[in-house]
Design a protein that fits this description.
- Helices cover 69% and strands 6% of the residues.
- Strand 4 and strand 5 form a beta hairpin.
- The longest helix is centred in the N-terminal third of the chain and has 90 residues.
- By secondary structure, the protein is mainly α.
- The strands form 2 sheets. Strands 1-4-5 form a 3-stranded antiparallel sheet, with no helix packed on it.
- The protein folds into 2 domains: 160 residues, no CATH class; 191 residues, no CATH class.
- InterPro entries: DUF641_pln, GIL1-like, GIL1_IRKI_C.
Length: 450
């Protein structure tokens, strides 16, 4: 019994020791786990706090940058506003506008004060910009408005400059037109009243375009005089001048009734100048310039009636005169003027007989000058070409001049409101001439622009 009791006590003690050992091991393990848990939690909190600080710093930098961008935009907008206000100030100087000047001046001052306040807040780091994005957008709007105002003022200045230049151009054109008309009147007076004595001692080597122009004016003067006499005879014979003018220029529109005379002038001039600068038959094979010049000198001052009576009726000049008379003066016209056809009959006889009416004398003088002008043209070293302007051709001052000044002014006013913007030729009154590179303008009648 004693042996059994000892073993039981020994076994109980062993169990107690094992339990304590297990308890100690368990306690140590639990303590280690708690320490590790507490260490991990502390590191996580520190890392989270550090990330939060970095995020706040990034946001702060972004905001500072946005504030600076808004500040710079506001500054540029202010400068643009000052520029626009200064432009308004200059614009108000001429013409002088006191109210506009004061308004623009105050706008400049207000903007300078605003920029100055902005500078103070920036230096003191007291910029109070709650929403940089809104400030930036407002600054852009202000800048665009100022730019639009500046561009508007620039457009006004340019338009004013254009108006001034247009006014100057109109004034200069008017002066040029007046001076040109005055010079032409002086030239016509000079040529019509000038003496032909300068041609007496004229040599071939000294002959030039100026001599041709001088004698051309002398010739045109006689052609105009004959046309007036022809119209007078028509009126005396109860002709319908309007119908007669329409027969010559069917589509012509005349500003005034008195302008119908240009249709008759056109008919006479074109008929008389037909075949101009074509050598006559006796001289055609031997085109001698000096011979043509001598013919010109010999005939230019002769009495046509006496010359025809005393010289060969088949001479070059006599044949020219007869041919042109039959072309210009129709049978019905001659019969209407004189009641018979004696002028034609006398010329066709070729016996030296010459009609003695004032009408024929005027025609003969005109024919003589045209024939002499032709001789003078054939005497020139340079080729002389005659030209006329076609109907509806655009008016060009380089090659044309208007026969009726009234037509130019009236047509110009109508052209201003028209789409074409061009003056058009109704018909040629006097043909033009080209001598080498020189141009003697054709005289035209301009039809009104519809």
């Amino acid at each position: 019994m004693e042996t059994i009791g000892t073993k039981s006590v020994t076994k109980g003690r062993s169990n107690n020791k094992l339990s304590k050992t297990i308890q100690k091991v368990t306690s140590l393990k639990f303590a280690s786990n708690n320490a590790l848990f507490f260490l991990t939690t502390h590191e996580t909190k520190a890392h989270h706090h550090q990330a939060k600080n970095k995020n706040e710093e990034s946001k702060a930098r972004t905001r500072r940058r946005a504030v600076m961008e808004a500040l710079i935009a506001r500054l540029f907008a202010g400068v643009t506003t000052i520029k626009a206000s200064y432009a308004e100030l200059q614009m108000a100087q001429q013409p002088y506008n006191n109210e506009a000047i004061q308004k623009a001046d105050q706008a400049v001052v207000d903007e300078l004060i605003s920029i100055s306040e902005l500078k103070k807040r920036f230096l003191k780091k007291e910029l109070n910009i709650s929403s940089p994005q809104v400030t930036l957008m407002l600054a852009e709007v202000q800048e665009q408005q100022s730019l639009m105002k500046t561009f508007g003022i620039t457009i006004q200045n340019l338009q004013s400059l254009v108006d001034t230049k247009d006014s100057e151009i109109s004034s200069l054109k008017k002066q040029l037109h007046e001076y040109t008309a005055f010079n032409k009147s002086l030239e016509k007076k000079l040529h019509s009243s000038g003496s032909l004595s300068k041609f007496e001692s004229l040599h071939l080597s000294a002959l030039n375009t100026t001599h041709f122009i001088h004698f051309l004016q002398h010739t045109l003067s006689s052609m105009k005089s004959f046309t007036k006499l022809m119209i007078k005879e028509m009126e005396s014979s109860n002709w319908d001048l309007e119908l007669a003018a329409k027969c010559i220029q069917p589509d012509a529109v005349f500003i005034k009734q008195s302008h119908r005379c240009y249709a008759f002038e056109s008919f006479v001039n074109m008929t008389m100048f037909e075949g101009f600068n074509v050598p006559s038959e006796p001289l055609q094979k031997h085109h001698n310039r000096n011979l043509y010049l001598e013919n010109f000198k010999r005939h230019k001052s002769l009495n046509t009636k006496h010359y025809l009576s005393a010289h060969d009726p088949n001479s070059s000049f006599a044949r020219f005169l007869k041919s042109k008379y039959l072309q210009v003066v129709h049978e019905k016209m001659e019969c209407s003027f004189f009641g018979n056809l004696n002028h034609r009959k006398l010329l066709k006889l070729n016996n030296g007989g010459v009609p003695d009416s004032a009408f024929f004398v005027a025609f003969a003088e005109m024919a003589k000058r045209v024939w002499c002008l032709d001789c003078l043209a054939l005497s020139l070293d340079e080729d002389v070409r005659i030209f006329q302007v076609k109907k509806n051709t655009r008016f060009s001052e380089a090659y044309m001049e208007c026969e009726a000044e009234k037509v130019v002014s009236t047509s110009s006013e109508e052209v201003t409101d028209s789409d074409s913007g061009e003056l058009r030729v109704g018909f040629t009154v006097v043909p033009g001439f080209m001598i080498g590179k020189s141009v003697i303008q054709s005289q035209v009648y301009l039809s009104p622009v519809s």
